[in-house]
Specification:
Length: 269
């Protein structure tokens, strides 16, 4: 038995068909551009992405929350002024448990004033109540199974063969689907270009043999960057894996991030 077609269903079908007709050419063009190797990726001519596998590692125990990485990222990538960040720093303050509570620790206080770019004020709780405190730099997690890529209707967000997750601004329509889909809060809508933005590992630098700006300026070497396809025994990224208990954020989501952490607690998400 056929169900009657209501006015709402009819209008919904028309809207979907129109959206598909409008977006399909852009999606085909974007995917074709990706196959031709990143029309707008800032990679130099002759760069072979399949020859590399970029990764980032972060030692939270070394981060001092100075904010130099955030400032360097803003300047290097012309990130708009205001609450827009491709990388930022969060402070985690773990308090002592209440006497008699039976808990091993108290509540966690998390803050990131101005993305941590100007450093941090005094902790929000008295020092005698603090059990543990640490800083955690955040950025795009370079997921192997990227939710942002899956939801982009025009193929503007794509996985590069070298492990980077990139956005081609020529094809981005500013729909914001990728921003909503990112479980790590790593994307924002640029108030200047009205397209999605996020960390690209300073793709214009790493494809020319340079390190990302945030890695370059870190005074404590809390950020470690490397190419897993060319990581010899003395390579910093390989030594990081061998010397630390390595974790990723939100592993239960199955995104398989390529940003790895050491020295973080369970409160970090």
């Amino acid at each position: 038995m056929k169900r009657p077609v209501t006015r709402r269903k009819l209008l919904g079908g028309v809207a979907a068909a129109l959206a598909g007709a409008i977006l399909a050419p852009a999606a085909r063009a974007a995917k074709a551009a990706v196959r031709k190797v990143f029309v707008s990726s800032d990679a130099p001519k002759g760069y072979r992405p399949e020859d590399h596998q970029w990764a980032m590692a972060i030692d939270a125990g070394r981060c001092i929350g100075c904010g130099l990485c955030v400032e360097a990222c803003k300047k290097e990538n012309s990130v708009p002024e205001g609450p827009y960040f491709r990388t930022w720093i969060e402070r985690y303050v773990i308090t002592r448990p209440q006497p008699g509570s039976g808990e091993s620790r108290g509540p966690a206080h998390v803050d990131s004033p101005n993305g941590g770019m100007r450093g941090f004020p005094e902790p929000p709780v008295p020092k005698e109540e603090i059990q543990h405190a640490f800083f955690v730099p955040k950025l795009c997690n370079l997921c192997r199974h990227s939710p942002c890529v899956q939801v982009c209707p025009v193929g503007a967000t794509f996985d590069a063969p070298d492990g980077a997750v990139l956005i081609d601004p020529k094809y981005c329509i500013g729909c914001g689907f990728c921003i909503q889909a990112c479980p790590y809060g790593c994307r924002f809508m640029s108030p200047v270009t009205h397209t999605a933005e996020k960390c690209t590992l300073c793709y214009h630098r790493i494809t020319r043999g340079l390190r990302p700006a945030c890695v370059e300026v870190c005074p404590t070497e809390a950020r470690v960057f490397g190419d897993l396809k060319h990581a010899g025994p003395s390579d910093p990224i390989r030594q990081f894996y061998e010397r630390n208990k390595v974790q990723t954020l939100k592993p239960h989501l199955g995104t398989e991030p390529r940003v790895f952490y050491a020295g973080i607690d369970k409160e970090v998400r």
